[in-house]
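Title: Prediction job returns without error message
Component: structure pipeline
Severity: low
Priority: P3
Assignee: unassigned

Description:
Job completed but the reporter wants confirmation the result is attached to the right record. Sequence as submitted:
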Amino acid sequence: METINPPLERQRRHSRFFERLLFSYKLQLLLGLCVAVLLPALWHWGWGFWQQAPAALWAALTGTVIAYAVSINAVQRLARLPGTKASLLIIPSISICYGLLILVLVALGIEYSVLHVFISYLVALVYCGGGYLIGSRYRIPKLAVVPFGKAPELCHNHGVDWRVLDAPDLDQTRIDGVVADLRGDMPEEWERFLADCTIHRIPVYHATSAFEMLSGRVQLGHLYENRYGSLQPDEGYEVIKRGLDFLAALVLMPILLPIMSITAVAIRMDSPGPAIFKQQRMGFHCRPFTVYKFRSMYTDQKGAGFTVEGEDPRITRVGNVIRKYRIDELPQLFNVLKGDMSLIGPRPESMNLADWYEKDVPFFHYRHVVRPGISGWAQVEQGYAAEVEGMIRKLEYDFYYIKNFSFWLDVLIAFRTLKTLVTGSGSR
C-alpha cells in the first residue's frame, strides 16, 4: 500500500496550534468580553466591584455581555456570505446591538449605568474593528485548483488567491482548500491526491459549489447539478419571515407615512396624474398581484415596457429623485401587509416582461417559489436589469437567494439596501 505524504497534514492553513488558538471564535469571544465588558467595569468601579456593585451596573454588565456576544456572532455569520468583509460589518453590527440594548432597557424601565454601556460600546468598536482589520490580510482565501474539467474556467477573481496545480502535489504551499470538478474525468493519481487531502482535513470543494459560495450566483448552465430539490426554500423560516415582514411593516408605517405624504404632494405638483402607480406583476407561486409605487413618469408618454438605460425622457423631475433613493418603492409596504410581497426577495416583474423572459430565459418562473421583495440579493449585487442577458445574471443571483434562503442572508441584504438608500447607487 502506498504511503501518504506526511507533510500534507501540515499544509492546511491555520492548522498549527497557535494559529487555531488565534483564529478560534470562542477564544476571540472570551477575550472580547474581557476587554469590552469587564475592563470598563474595572476601570470605573475598581477591583472587587462585584461585591458592592449597584443593580444599575449589573443590568449594564448583563446587557453589554448579550449585546457584544450577539453582535460578534452576527459578524461571524454574515462574513461567511459572498462579497462580505468582517471589518466592514463591525460598526453597523455593534451599533445596532447596543442600540437595541438601550431600547429594551428603557422600554422595560430598567435602571442601568449609561456610562458603562457607552464606554463598552466605544471599546468594542475599537477593539473589534482593529482586530478584524489587522486579521483581514490573513483571511484572504488561498485555494488550489485541479486543472481538469470546468474547474479552471470557474476559479478566478472573487478576492481569492488561486493556485493552479501542475501536479498532484501542494509543493509545500499552505492552502485553505482544493477546488476540483468532481464530476469530470481526472487521472487516478489526482483522485488519490484529493482523497489524501480529505484524510488530512484539507477541504475539497466541487467547482460549481465553490463558484456559488464566492460569487453569490447559481449558474443556469449548471442548474441540473442542483436538481431543483436542493433549491427548495426553508419552509420553517418562510413562516417566521412572513411574521417578521408584517411586524416590520407595522413599525415602519408611522415613521414613513409623513415621507410618503410629502412625496405624494410633490408628485401631484410636479406633473398631472395620480401619485400612486399601479401595475399587475407576477408574484408568489406565479399568481398575479397589483403592486403599488409612487409614480415617477409622465402619464402621457409612451415607451418601452421597462426603464431604459441612461436618460429616460419619461421620468419626471421628482421621479429622478425618488427613484435614486428608492422612495418610489415605499407604497409597497402595503403589499407587504397584504402578503403579496416580502421586504426581502426577488423583485417582481410586470406580466409582459415575465411572459417575455419565460420564453428566452431558462427556469425563469422558478424564481416565484418565494415571495417577491421590495429589495433583493440581485438588486444589491447587480442593480437594475431589463435586457435578457442582464436578466439571466439577475436570475442566477435570485437562485442563489432561494438556495440559501435564511435570516442571515436577509440581514446582509438589508444592510446593503440601507447603503444603497444612503448613496443612491444603482438607480435607473
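Comment from assignee: result matches the submitted record. The radius of gyration is 26 Å.
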